[in-house]
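Sample entry copied in:
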Amino acid sequence: MLRRLRLRDFRCFEGLDCSLAGGVTLFVGDNAQGKTAVLEAVCVLLRLQSPRAAGVAELLRFGAESFSIEAEFGGRDLLYSVAGARRRMAVDGDAVRRRGDYLAQTGLVVWMGNDDLALVRGGGDGRRRYLDFAAAQIHPGYRTALRCYERALRARNFLFKRDARPQWDQIEAYTKLLVEHGTVVAATRAGLVESLAAPAAAAQRQVGGRDEPLVMRYARSGGDDLAAAFEQSRGEDARRRQTLVGPHRDDLTLEINALPAAQFASEGQQRTIALALKLAQAAVLREAKGIDPVLLIDDIFGELDNARRNALLAHLPTSAQKLITATHLDWADQAFQASAQVFEVRDAALRPYAPSGGA
């Protein structure tokens, strides 16, 4: 459980020192005040990646040359800081060199936000990231396999574009790496989808309030045999000068009532599916690791109708710590507000929340 969070020069925060209770913490304020940055900092500290930023340069406060995030979490003091090309990770004051060793001592995370609608209606990149984020938290070697695959893919595509005639002896060296690491990536993702399917379908029914069967499948672009797929695609790869099969082209297919959700689901159904995917992610992480993930819920309740909002609140894991942002609390009843710790976020500063909006 996250007990205290300290930021320095992260996003809009010159400094922040925030003590947190268990259960629910609400961060309330207008847009562009820093609410989402608080949740993002927790995600970066616990998982070493941001759900919003493409690189660490985006996380620096304007004009700053470094940032740091510290927290008391699970009885340990965690630190992550970046200064130029230098990154530092520490647990209880002891530096940790390897990313995997650090992540093994931190916590699990599920991020829920309005952008999750893209999981249903957007391209395959977002769905692959959804699977990768969960898989890396469950399987320690997954991120290494994924990074090795991505490096080999970039090199193979570079060789196709560099030479007018493919240098197959060089290309095949990277093809072997793609087969080796891509097999691990695809098999892990496929197993994860099998684990997610049942809790996602259950969450879809409970949050949606209707018996609308949700079916999810992992679709492999090259089938089950990657080596054969690369061999069969060899001519087309050369013609198109890029790698056309493999886990980077795989997808997660979603069907509601036996129809593709992106084309045939209503917006309300699509929102419910996106919520169901994240609730299933939380359930699978808990099942795999025996601990609840921290739920980082970014400004989604104002976008839901009353029925879905109440159903989601009822379906959230009761024992999980939940950090929630909102522009207002009109959606939250008095009992829910009374049970939560509430902060107002204004001008990159936190203060006790007053219903009138004052300090």
